[in-house]
């Protein structure tokens, strides 16, 4: 069983930055590809970014490409999402997820384990 604990959410003004972290433990979390998803009020959960088990490769949604960076600290088994140039439309609950295997994926259904989510609010 893999446990995922997110942190780092909060309130920020448009144009600002935040860094989310996801600490993974248990099971095969150290060799699992991981991803970040988000869900805005009244919308479906959507893919944000993913990273392979060793820190690469990475993949990003078009809406965040060039603004967000996903990285992995393999020694601490922690995944980070550095978010810059934040926009009000980035406001959502952000979820960390892990899947079986080392290959990254963008589909929500490919991920087995989910964190509890952390709120990110970007004010205009």
How would you characterize the overall build of this protein?
This protein is mainly β and 124 residues long. Helices cover 0% and strands 48% of the residues. It has no helices and eleven strands. The strands form two sheets. Strands 2, 4, 5, 6, 9, 10 and 11 form a seven-stranded mixed β-sheet that branches. It has a four-stranded antiparallel β-sheet with strand order 1-3-8-7, with no helix packed on it. β4 and β5 form a beta hairpin. The protein is globular. The N and C termini lie far apart (40 Å).
In short:
This protein is mainly β.
* Overall mean pLDDT: 94
Strand content: over 45%
User: What structural class do the secondary elements suggest?
Assistant: mainly beta
**Outline type:** globular
Gyration radius from CA atoms, angstroms:
13 Å
Tell how many strands the DSSP assignment holds. Answer: 11
Give the low-confidence spans. Answer: none
Number of H- or I-type helical stretches: 0
Following the backbone from N to C, one meets helices and strands in this order, namely EEEEEEEEEEE
| Main sheet makeup | 7 strands, mixed
Binned, the helix content reads under 10%
Distance between the termini: 40 Å
List the helices and strands and how they pair.
Layout (H helix, E strand, L loop, with lengths): L2 E5 L2 E4 L4 E8 L8 E6 L6 E6 L6 E3 L7 E6 L4 E6 L8 E7 L14 E2 L3 E6 L1
Parallel strand pairs: 2-11
Antiparallel strand pairs: 1-3, 3-8, 4-5, 4-9, 5-6, 7-8, 9-10, 9-11
